[in-house]
Design goal:
The structure holds two protein chains of two kinds. Chain A contains no helices and eleven strands. Chain A is globular and about 40 Å long. Chain A is mostly beta strands. In chain A, strands 2, 4, 5, 9, 10 and 11 form a six-stranded mixed beta sheet that branches. A five-stranded antiparallel beta sheet of chain A has the order 1-3-8-7-6, with no helix packed on it. By secondary structure, chain B is mostly beta strands. Helices cover 0% and strands 58% of the residues of chain B. Chain B is built from no helices and eleven strands. The relative contact order of chain B is 0.33. Classes of the chains: A mainly beta, B mainly beta. At the A-B interface, strand 4, strand 5, strand 9 and strand 10 of A face strand 5, strand 9 and strand 10 of B.
Chain lengths: 109, 112
Amino acid sequence: DQQVKQNSPSLSVQEGRISILNCDYTNSMFDYFLWYKKYPAEGPTFLISISSIKDKNEDGRFTVFLNKSAKHLSLHIVPSQPGDSAVYFCAASPWDMRFGAGTRLTVKP
Amino acid sequence: DADVTQTPRNRITKTGKRIMLECSQTKGHDRMYWYRQDPGLGLRLIYYSFDVKDINKGEISDGYSVSRQAQAKFSLSLESAIPNQTALYFCATSVRGTGELFFGEGSRLTVL
């Protein structure tokens, strides 16, 4: 029973355009949401987070949006760069961290 | 040097063998976790520990056991490995209250 779902296994965008990665969750107890980025042969690294009391958090080119009523969050990357090509995991937590299956983002020059 | 170190990085073993994956950290974090990554399933939580005396089962603990030998060390054991335990295993740490996990580089385990 996956409580955090990323339904798009892959996404390809052109350099300079916007990348939008989506995530849905089922457990209303989740109160903290995070995005992680993973390059091959490395462990995931933290990218950005949002608390359930907010609906938006921005950090440079990265913005996370949270829609609690829809149990949906998204990560926007603007502008996308080739170095952003990686697998992105959505995660949610009340106390232990649950992850989605990941979305592989490819940014083409 | 990495803040979260996993050993071994790669291991090939046979069905029925006992295998231990070790994790050590220099971040001084209280909380430690073991995840496994499988294609199409993302990262799934096996066990987690909020301090030396606290061990909790995650989503998929069957077939695994853990030991928290010290604040800095958290080991994962497969008492009798089976082929569907072939996966990439990650150790992670966190500080209470932030939610942010710090991952090791992973241990790739193949069970033949």
